[in-house]
Inverse folding.
């Protein structure tokens, strides 16, 4: 081949390569634009509580158990420190999963042992019973609020590894602060699309009253369920307790198939996964609105 033909071939090859690069870049730009316009579901479902700029994550299953533990503490009027201790204990003992196994005869969220007087095997595998028994023990410890987490937890649990609770303190504090309402709009969940067939108003009411006590729940004109939190605590705590209930609801949004949670002038939307200003009139104090998939 002559030198001239070789130069022409090289120029043609460069032109094809350049055109291919432009085409690939154009396709990539279109894909990115479409992704931004129509974001897909999260690859992994997770819930996070923000504390001092750090996101502390839990799976939806862990989050719903954290919600029960915190809700029980709020229902009993216990301080956020009690919830922190309980969450750190459950994270160490069971990874916040209601397991059906453990060391020797240890079972459930807190790995309580029937042989040590915690209750029957069936009882300690009931998260409500297990959580109540943990708090029953904790409140008998003088000055537990001022003890290190390891000491307070060990006084209740009598674990063979008492120092292990400390590693969970910061994560537990982040979740306790959000779920007791001291840190508003800091707890969010990224979840897959809900299943309307698995959604039930009765299930929502039952879970509210299991975790938080006999709070009234009624449907509004839109069909959403409004939780009346006014029976909780004293009026000065109203805003905080409203946020406690709202962030509890986000933590159980996956099993209850909730699509949004509204409190005061903010709304958590499942599709966005974030707290945003509410469109329309804000909710009055003492009310939290839960919307189910339909």
């Amino acid at each position: 081949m002559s030198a001239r033909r070789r130069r022409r071939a090289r120029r043609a090859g460069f032109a094809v390569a350049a055109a291919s690069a432009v085409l690939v870049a154009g396709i990539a730009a279109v894909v990115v634009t479409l992704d931004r316009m129509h974001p897909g579901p999260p690859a992994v479902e997770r819930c996070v509580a923000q504390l001092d700029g750090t996101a502390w994550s839990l799976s939806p299953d862990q989050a719903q158990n954290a919600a029960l533990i915190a809700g029980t503490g709020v229902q009993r009027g216990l301080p956020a420190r009690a919830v922190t201790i309980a969450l750190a204990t459950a994270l160490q003992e069971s990874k916040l999963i209601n397991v059906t196994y453990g060391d020797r005869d240890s079972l459930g969220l807190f790995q309580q042992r029937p042989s040590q007087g915690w209750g029957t095997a069936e009882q300690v595998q009931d998260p409500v019973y297990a959580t109540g028994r943990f708090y029953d023990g904790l409140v008998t410890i003088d000055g537990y609020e001022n003890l290190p987490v390891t000491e307070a937890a060990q006084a209740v649990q009598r674990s063979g590894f008492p120092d292990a609770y400390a590693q969970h303190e910061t994560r537990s504090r982040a979740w306790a602060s959000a779920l007791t309402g001291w840190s508003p709009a800091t707890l969010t969940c990224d979840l897959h699309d809900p299943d309307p067939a698995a959604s039930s108003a009765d299930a929502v009411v039952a879970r509210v009253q299991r975790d938080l006590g006999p709070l009234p729940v009624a449907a509004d004109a839109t069909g959403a369920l409004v939780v009346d939190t006014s029976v909780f605590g004293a009026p000065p705590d109203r805003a905080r307790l409203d946020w406690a209930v709202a962030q509890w609801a986000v933590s159980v949004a996956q099993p209850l198939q909730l699509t949004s949670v509204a409190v005061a002038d903010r709304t958590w939307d499942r599709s966005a996964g974030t707290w945003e200003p509410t469109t329309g009139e804000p909710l009055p104090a003492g009310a939290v609105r839960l919307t189910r998939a339909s």
